[in-house]
Design brief:
CATH class: Alpha Beta
Number of strands: 7
Radius of gyration: 18 Å
Number of domains: 1
Order of helices and strands: EHEEEHEHEHHEHHHH
Family: Belongs to the protein-tyrosine phosphatase family. Non-receptor class subfamily.
Helix content: 25-40%
Protein name: Tyrosine specific protein phosphatases domain-containing protein
Oligomer: single chain
Largest sheet: 5 strands, mixed
Number of helices: 9
GO molecular function: catalytic activity, acting on a protein; F-box domain binding
GO cellular component, one term: cytoplasm
Amino acid sequence: MDLNQQPMRIVPTFDGLDPGTLTEEDLQIITNNDAQIADDRSAMWTYKMRHEAQRILDFLYLGPRTIVKDAQWLNATGITMIVLAHDVGFGPLLKSFAEKCTEGLDIETLLIPVASSHGLTKLFDDITRAINRNLLSVYRQQAEGAGDSQGTMAINSSNVKRGKVLVTCQTGNDRATVIAAAYIMSVFGVGMVDAVNFITSQRFCSNFDEEAKRALCSWEEILGARKDVHRARTPVGSERGGSGAGLAGPPQALRPLLRWEEEAY
């Protein structure tokens, strides 16, 4: 290991986003404009750590499904949303499991039934928007009222609570890692390789197989094409401040999931 090697670092930048999904203000709220530095755990990784959750971003954690049963950890960490990727057919069982584990906690739960990593590709968009919507909602619920004549929200930044998301699957090593990578690619504008390395250095047991990498490569191409289209349609001088229309209301593809209905992909 090169002791002089600098830790991986990703920086939120509006220029790296598809501005049709987030406004610049949204991005600032979600990321706090903080650079995210990977806490490289590869040298000190132990087997038992695969049964724990690791912080991947300031506001995003990755771990096995068993973590959902640890109400004390969820509460102490400040988790406001749990994303559970699971095999098709286990929806009713996991619905009951999630409800029992989060009883009495103000935590939103989103179930994602998938048959394969490839099946996740068409859901990346909706999952990302659902996560962002939760993070924005947690922030905006703390508004103290209209701060000025324009109706700007006044929030006490000294004690503001930020939303935090736990992404999980049965092991926390495969489908959950793919979801986390797709989210990082979308919000931080990084490529597949950087997103995978950023996650793997922090959760060393992460398993990105060839199917997962192909899915993320496809997602990278989709994100790149969207940016190109948006740039082509955006008049010069008005690149900033996307419409954010993608955050208005529950994403169509996930409406059944938000009602705990099982759907196969």
